[in-house]
Each structure stands twice: as C-alpha cells, then as structure tokens.
C-alpha cells in the first residue's frame, strides 16, 4: 500500500479506498459468473464443473463426484514474462 502511495503521489488512505473498492467490484462481478480481466496482469473468473462419475484409484470403485465451483486467477502473458524473465 505504501509503495503504491509513493509511486502515485497519493496518500495511503486514498490508495486503501481505491484498492478496497477494486477488490469489492472484482469479487462481486466474479461471484455473478462474469470474468474480470486486467490487461497485462491477470484474469479472474469462476469455473463450474458438472457432477460426474469417477473411479477411486485405490480400489477401482466407481464413485459420484459432485458438481463444484472454483475461483480461478490466471496470470496473463505480460505479467508472467515480467516475473519469469521470459
């Protein structure tokens, strides 16, 4: 937070308010099932998988795997290149 305030010339309280609002918007949007992409950084989305039949690898027994939802964040190319040096 302090680093963002220093780089932008804003006070920490303003930066905190903006980041808090950003977090709320992203969370609410993704909760509705809509993806949010921040160009050059990351994509936030909700992934849903349907119920399916699977197999227990230890016993070979057929089992029912329930449907589920998962929150996903995928780093985009520019971010990965900067972090990984690619």
Descriptive overview:
- By secondary structure, the chain is an alpha+beta fold.
- The protein has one domain (2-84): HU Protein, Chain A (Irregular).
- The protein contains three helices and five strands; from the N terminus they run ααβββββα.
- It has helices at residues 2-8, 12-31, 77-84; strands at residues 36-38, 42-49, 52-55, 62-65, 68-75.
- The strands form two sheets. The chain has a three-stranded antiparallel sheet with strand order 1-2-5.
- A hairpin with a 3-residue loop joins strand 1 (36-38) and strand 2.
- It is elongated, with a radius of gyration of 19 Å.
- The model has no long low-confidence stretch (mean pLDDT 94).
Calculate the terminal CA-CA distance, rounded to whole Å.
27 Å
CATH architecture grouping: Irregular
Provide the number of structural domains. Answer: 1
CATH fold topology:
HU Protein, Chain A
CATH H-tier superfamily: IHF-like DNA-binding proteins
Average pLDDT level: 94
> What value does the Rg take, in angstroms?
19 Å
Unreliable parts? none
How many DSSP H or I helices?
Answer: 3
CATH first level: which class?
Few Secondary Structures
Brief write-up:
The chain has helices at residues 2-8, 12-31, 77-84; strands at residues 36-38, 42-49, 52-55, 62-65, 68-75.
Q: What features would you highlight for this structure?
A:
86 residues, alpha+beta, HU Protein, Chain A, two-stranded antiparallel sheet, elongated
Write the layout of secondary structure elements.
Elements: H1 2-8, H2 12-31, E1 36-38, E2 42-49, E3 52-55, E4 62-65, E5 68-75, H3 77-84
Antiparallel strand pairs: 1-2, 2-5, 3-4
């Amino acid at each position: 937070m302090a680093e963002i305030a220093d780089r932008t010339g804003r006070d920490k309280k303003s930066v905190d308010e903006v980041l808090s609002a950003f977090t709320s918007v992203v969370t609410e949007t993704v909760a509705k099932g809509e993806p949010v992409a921040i160009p050059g950084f990351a994509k936030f989305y909700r992934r849903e998988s349907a119920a399916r039949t699977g197999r227990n690898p230890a016993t070979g027994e057929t089992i029912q795997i329930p449907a589920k939802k998962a929150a996903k964040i995928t780093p985009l190319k520019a971010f990965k290149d900067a972090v990984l040096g690619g």
